Fold this sequence. Notes:
The chain has 237 residues and is mainly α. It has helices at residues 2-9, 15-25, 29-45, 47-68, 81-96, 100-111, 125-134, 138-151, 156-169, 172-183, 193-202, 209-221, 227-236.
Amino acid sequence: MLERIESYFNHTLSNEERQLFETQLATDETLANEVAFYLNTKIAARENAKEKRKQEFEELRKKLVKNNKIRLNGWITGIAASVLIAIVTWIFVQKNGINADEIADVYIQEHFESLPVKMDGSTDSLQMGLRFFNQKSYKDAQSIFDKMLERKPDGAEVLKVSGITALKLGDYPKAVIRFHELGKQENLFANPGKFYEALALMKIKPFDKKVVEGLLNEVISNDLEGKQTAVEILKQL
């Protein structure tokens, strides 16, 4: 069974074998549990890589502090690394006039390092794609999200994670399309589509400044997700 699971994730099964596997996965609890164990093992094997990234974040913080002579008080030591980087970055922006594209890069780095997954070992397509994303297997994740959108093109959560995955892959036009479709949905409690679309557009050189400004102003005026970052970006455009 393990060999078959590995063949599935290594894309060595035929189309017929792959469809049979996915059909069985939806109904066979034993296979589902084996896939969950396989993915969890993969995730565990990457813990060392996570620790390395933490060290890289710390090196980035030290570099920014050194280069800009920022002195941080002792109380800041215990806060989360992502928050610390955000504070240092904000100070860096104020002192050095970092450009809008760099602000977008910082946001993407801080917020899209990993995506939340269910902790109950769920093996539905979305959870499988999210696990691939967190393993940095972005192409595998995107393949799953694309198939989900073929079945349900207006799936808000899938549009969001597919767009984020496209950002990580550097496929900015695809990210723009995904976020644009997400941003058009008006029945969501929280919709980051317009803000994320602006971020993706800013990664396409040269980007359309008026379109980006329009999206960011919508984010601010409608108090949407990303409002504070949108304010900072508009100051630099």
